Every structure is written in C-alpha cells, then in structure tokens.
Amino acid sequence: MTKPDPHASRCSAPIAVVLGAVLAAALAGCAAPRPEPRVVERPAPALTASQNVAPAFPVPSACERMVFLARQEWTLFGAPEVTAPGDPSGTGGSGAAAGGRLAFADPGSPTHELHAPMLSRVLVYWYGVTRAPIVGTSGELRPWSAAFVSWLARGAGLGGDEFPATVLHWDYIERFMRARPNDVFETRDAARAAPRVGDLVCQAREGTAELAQRSGFVPYGALRRGAYHCDLVVAARPGEIQTIGGNVSDVVAMTRVPVDADGRLLPDPRRPWAAVVARRGPVPLSACASVPPSPARAAAPAP
Questions:
Q1: Whole-model pTM?
Q2: How far apart are CA 62 and CA 64, in angstroms?
Q3: How far apart are CA 204 and CA 18, in angstroms?
Q4: What is the crossing angle of helices 62-76 and 116-127, to 10°?
Q5: Distance (Å, rounded) from C-alpha 233 to C-alpha 66?
Q6: CA triple 193-194-196, angle to 5 deg
Q7: Cα-Cα-Cα-Cα dihedral of 94, 77, 44, 164, to 10°?
Q8: pLDDT tens for residues 156-187?
C-alpha cells in the first residue's frame, strides 16, 4: 500500500486556498466595480497674508487679476482688435464684433477658435467652469463667451459663491440683479451706469435685442432670460473704454467702446446695451489700478 506523500499535502492545500482567494477577488472585482470618487468643489483660499505677517511681494487685487488674465489671453490670440463692429445678432460670430472686422498685431498670423493652439485655450475656459459638452448637436462649437468670463473670475480667485460658474451670461446678470450686501458685483442699468475698469458691459443679442427701445438701451425692468454678450473693461480714458471678451468673431478680442463726458455708454443700434455688471466692495475686488489704453491699429479683414 502506497503511503501519501506528506510534503505534497502540505503544499497543495495552501496553493488551492491561494488560487481560490485570487479567483474570488477577481470575480468580486468584476461584479462590483469601484465607483469613481466624487469631486467636491471647495472655495479657493483668499490670496492674502496672515494678519501678523507682512507680504514680501505685491498682491494684485481680484479685479486686477481678472484684467491681467484677460490681457494675457488676448495676447495669446494675437492681440486682435475690433475695428468695425457688426450686428451682434448676425451669424458671423458671437459678441460685439459679429460680422465685423479684426486687426491683428501681426496681420500675417490671424488666429481662430478652431486653430489647434487656440482650441486648446477655449477648452480650458469651457471645462474650467462646466462639464457640459462643448460640441453642439450639429457638430458646432457652442458659444463660449460666458465661459470665458466665468473662467476669468475663477482664475482671479473668486469662488462659486462669489461668481457663478456658467456658460450663460444671463446667469450672472440675474444673480447680481439680486445682489446681497457682501456680493462683489451688482447689475446696473446700462443707460445710467458709467463702466469702470473691472466692470462687465453687456449687450443684448438675438431675441433679447428686440427689447431695446429707440434709445439703444434695453430698459432695466425689461431684462429677462435670453441671449447676451458681456466683455470685461480693461482700460478707460475720456471718451472711450476698452473691453476684452471671448468668442468675439471666434477669438479673444479687444473692442473700443465710446462713452460720453460722464463715462456712460453711448447708444449704438449695432449693439444695444443691456446692463453693466459693476464691481463693488468688499476689498479686494473694489480696488483696480488703472491700465493704460492700448494704441489703435489699422483695420484688417477678419480671418
């Protein structure tokens, strides 16, 4: 009679147990995949020094950071300037320059939202504030001007409770129509407000443009949900403000906007003004250093 090998029994049992455990773990992993961790947005800490520590470097205000970011992105797009604003409800693009003309710092190197380097920037703006798809149902790129404004606010350190993360200008226009005491912006009547550096100037587009009266302004009480376009004021001087906005003729562009002797917007049938989203206290947003205006350049056809 053959005796069982004691060494074989000692090895085979643990191996079977180990293989069974591995197989069970593999099956369990297939049957119950681990859920992806949920990302929770937390407010960004304020860029300020501790109460008992003096900063060793100058800290720009949130308003200044928005202006610096806008100028940075404008430069990346080739510093285009609107020289002949078109009808904002036209089909040539979004914003004040729809169907208009642009002049680039380098006329031989115009840019466009669909150029690979520029599209990369547009995706940064869009997915910095939303997870909604940027490509529409017909394969088109969705209007991204509001995402650009929200991205500027985020980049300047403003949290979601201070400025909405949105791809619709109306969301923050309406939000600041009901401004709370500590809000950093408030929506004002475009016919009465005098925009300053750091403010947003908003115009009506498409259906909302019909709300404008012969005065060239949308009555403040008639503002409603719809299509708008807003640009950030980056410089001001007597008779003119300079604004930078996204998706202006498919780029980040600068527009020169005439103002009266008191700094108020002048009526323009090509772009009926709807509102001014004005910066207000508390500090640091209320402080915004004056930025020298950019010199004008000659007109050139848009790409």
A1: 0.77
A2: 5
A3: 70
A4: 150
A5: 10
A6: 125
A7: 0
A8: 999 988 999 999 999 999 999 998 888 889 99
